[in-house]
Amino acid sequence: MALSASILDILKESTSPMHWQKVLTTLISEFGCSTGTLHSFDKESQHLVLMAQQGIPEFLLPKMSKIPIGKGMAGIAAERRKPVEMCNLQTDDTGVARPAAKETKVEGSIAVPMLLNGELYGVLGIAKPVSYDFTKDESDMLLEIGESIGRILKSETV
């Protein structure tokens, strides 16, 4: 599964700083999702820091603005450096999803680390309002998008 032209076009834009909300909104739309987050990795604090979001209830934003590595889906994806997926976040009882995450009212969700040459640059997460298992192709595409975002984040910090 190849990256869509709309995502590639946005990621190739030479705007600095990048318009991360536009990136996330396009990504959510391309995958038929309703909700999403884009977090960068702050090496100093060892936390994921919210860069953009869509569909997250206002009262949850304080809990999602800074996420420790290893906590919740995004934190675990960052820690494992692998995608973390749930077919239905609402019925999850593994403890991977934080209790407040259920307040998003989403079901099928995936958090993917943004890695470039094995280095963590953040995590992107998207979710659907229905139960859904993301395919391997979709997961691979999200990893590829994450790598492209990592490349941009690296260039913005140089």
Automatic annotation (TrEMBL):
Domain GAF: residue ranges: 22-153
Gene3D superfamilies hit by this protein: 3.30.450.40
Name of the protein in question:
GAF domain-containing protein
